[in-house]
Amino acid sequence: MKFGAHVSAAGGLWNAPENAAKIGCEVFQFFSRPPQGGNPAAITPDVAKKFREACEKYEQELWVIHAPYIINFASTTERIRQGSIRIIREELDRGSALGARAVMFHPGSARDVPLSMGIRMVADGVNELLKDYKGTTQLLIEISAGSGSVIGDTFDEVRDILKLVKNENVGVCFDTAHAFASGYDLRDKKAVAATFDAFDKEIGLERLVMSHCNDSKVELGAKKDRHDFLGEGHIGLSGFEAMMADSRLAHLFWIVETPVEGQEADIKKLKKIRSGL
Ligand SMILES: [Zn+2]
Ligand SMILES: [Zn+2]
User: Fold this and answer.
1) What's the 3-state SS for 66-126?
2) What average pLDDT is seen over the chain?
3) CATH label, 2-275, candidates 3.20.20.150, 3.20.20.70, 2.60.40.10, 3.90.550.10
4) CA 45–ligand 2 middle distance (angstroms)
């Protein structure tokens, strides 16, 4: 069980490990390219070397990459769909060059097509981008906060995507705030047990690699993506205590994506929970 945060890589990817160490991360997450789109700087051997050296210097051993937000595999605009496929493949290759454990992405939304076709389009896109992929970075689908026609906000949608993906190594990134907003209760021991029973039944806990660890500003099932500091939102600290105490989740690592000013405190809260287990 490791804890960390989404940190800035502004000024160069090699700055991320220092930003992570400053706030007590045991694992960190970053964007390897502008999250709202645009082309990234190349990861030359020199950049990769600087990054690895910084990880060593700041004693970081585990890192993951969040894909840009502009991804939509279910877009009927071919440019967006093809761009999504290209960008996620690039992120896997870039992640492999940096030694990243995983890249997670939000599948997109079925705005212009029926949900079942959207799910098929996501799976087809993933199959296409994984063609000939030999890297070491694992691809993860992130549970979304279900607003509108978002794909992947329920366990059965994620299951349906994975069923159509011809690669068993594709995993899942849980997001506590997203799942809660999508209607999966996480507020106490009983609720946590039921939510992960459902996850196991639909998707399989063996696919679960990590979680984004955020409290939620909105109530259960409110279908909005609003992160809050741990213990200050509608999930509450007892929910996080229950998740940390669930032995089925002991292999996960947890990334807080709360506003930067509260990340250090949030990581401390998690470490405190862990020390009391
Ligand atoms: Zn995300
Ligand atoms: Zn979110």
Assistant:
1) ECCCCCCCCCCCHHHHHHHHHHHHHHHHHHHHHCCCEEEECCCECCCCCHHHHHHHHHHHH
2) 96
3) 3.20.20.150
4) 32
